Amino acid sequence: MYLRRGEGGAELLSVKAVQVAFLLFEALFGFISAAVSALKNSRDIRSKRIVTVLNVLAGSLMLFDFLGYVLEGKTRPVFRILNSIANLNVFLLCHFILLAYLMYLSVTLLDPVAKRTHKVQCRIRLWISAALGMAGIVLVVISQFTRWIYSIDESNVYHRGPLFGLSVLLPLLAMCVIMTILVQSRKYMGKYRFWTMMSYILLTLIGLVLQIVLADFVYMDLGIAISIHIMFFENIVHQNREIRRAERTDIRTGLANEHSCIERIRAIRGSRKLTDYASVYFDLTKFALINRKYGVDTGNAVLNSYVRRISVELDEEEILGRQHGDQFIAIVKKEKLQKILSLLAGVKVSFRNEMTGEMQEELVASKAGVYEIENSDISAEDIITYAGTALDHAKSISGRSVIYMTQELMDSLEERKRLEIEIRKALQNVEFTPYYQPKVNSVSGKLCGAEALSRWVHSDEIVMPSKVYSFHGNERYDLRTGSSDAPTGL
What we know:
Oligomer: single chain
Number of strands: 12
Strand content: 5-15%
CATH class of the largest domain: Mainly Alpha
Helix content: 55-70%
Number of helices: 14
Low-confidence stretches: 1-12, 112-117, 471-475, 479-490
Radius of gyration: 36 Å
CATH topology of the largest domain: Rhopdopsin 7-helix transmembrane proteins
Order of helices and strands: HHHHEEHHHHEHHEEHEEEHEHEEEH
Structural class: alpha+beta
Distance between the termini: 83 Å
């Protein structure tokens, strides 16, 4: 794509100087971009390496274009050799950039998100494009002995050869094939990455038109280099976005994690009517048995199939996230609540057993706590907490698979919080007094120990034990620190 300026056309020195200086600037920018790309941390190592290589190639392309301009017309033998090397590398680099671009495109497209049939179709066209690029390289190499594409005369001036048009046509055909891949794959790529990848084709074609019309500068090579710079910036933005997404995503399932769920609930609260939604906190029932029975890898596959089955029932503004372990949170519209609960009651999941390779089926069910949001001013944390409290009630108290957070249960929770504050203050104020009941060895009749019975004296009144046990019978408090830990009696 080294469409050189017209032969014999007069140029203003100032214009040429600016053009040559701009080529040198682009070369330096390409090498600096490559260094930044190589040093930057990235979750996608393959993309990082390819973008780094693309920027090295783009910088080299601009550098050899710069040398071609500077050395042209200088007849000393060393300048003629350097000019020949520069022109050879310009042609080769254009084709190598095409091949590196195809590698970047394949990494972008052929991931687990794309369907199998789509991958096969893309691979065939990618190989066709790569074959056209390789054919261009072979043509450039042959031209060094035949002068089919270009030649350099005794005055060290560049001239196009009879097959110069073919050297341009081959990569253009590859770009046409690539364009069909991009258009078909745009839904897998996202808007910004799609237009970034399209810039390679569009800027190259615009540069070609300008070069044909103006015939005084390597606009096409410049278009290629600028498109590579655009890929560099987009890749940095994309990687930063992926890092932020990873911070908010559960690795095992790809769902929103606890932090992300809170952010998205706040978004609903800010832009939509929060009272139209219900919070469902659910825990998979005996899922550890599946992991032990089939292994962790198969267990992960079952888990992902299960959450996908639920996800397909949710709209874009609804939320499904993983809290921890086998516990999940769903924020769904109230009109969908019963449908989601019916899925949680039990759904058959088909999967491939990693140990045997056979397709099998398991029934996966959950227990759930439900909080139907009634107040738009409630915090995101409380929305999750209330549903989680209802789930705890379903698991440990009622034995039912679904429990709703009612006003009665909510009042109980508030009273529990109030009493806990009072107990902590009482521990700090030494309001608990132990009374020791002796223990006597029935054989020897000797004192062998004592049992301490604690009494809580608050405001000169004894707090009845039933008040404490009704809320804290499942916790133990450290009388020295005032902290609760193991589930025993007070």
